[in-house]
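Re: the 220-residue chain
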Amino acid sequence: PNVSESVVTLGPRERGTTGPAGVECRVAPSRQACYLLLNPEGEVEHLDNGRVRTKVFIDMYIMDKAYDAINAYYRNNLEIPGFRKGGNVPESVIMSNVGKEQYFLAVLEEVFKSTLEGAFAKLGDRILADTETIETPTDEMVKALVTRTPFNYQVSADILPEVAWKSPYAEMTIKVDSSSFSQPDEEKVEEIIQEFRKEQAQLNIAVGRNVQRGDMCVVE
């Protein structure tokens, strides 16, 4: 069924502040779940190793969405005796067929899919792809999912360094090493020919003579 969302603001904005007014709360009438945006400014901690770190808050709204998505996936793809695919299979039945550990790990992965992409939204495209690391222990997050308790997870990622010019771009001086272009054409041609000869040369066994300069010898 289609579910509309309403937005409520909790708490007035303090005088002299420039941040958002209070805490934004999205209420889904079907679950009466409140999506509390506890990190509206996307606070990011810059680490010393070229990485950044932030925290992502997972509330009941996000958690319920993840449960719904995983349950829908298994209902449509899992063969469960006594139920047809796409039927209204109880969550407990799905869990017993899939296994509790796999089930909750799938829910956790769904949580990451819906929140990880926007974790560093404040930094735009400066985050390097596929460098994200979830630092919060998996057991801790799974426990929160099992008990349906809101939780935070901490994530870090590599970030592109900021480039600062020492002088304005228009005043920059570029030096080009032209030493490789000072060689006469005849010498270049001869050098290329010699390199080609070395690459294409074949070794023949010298018979009936002594070792000469330029021979290749194998000593055992």
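Helices lie at 60-77, 91-98, 100-115, 138-146, 185-200.
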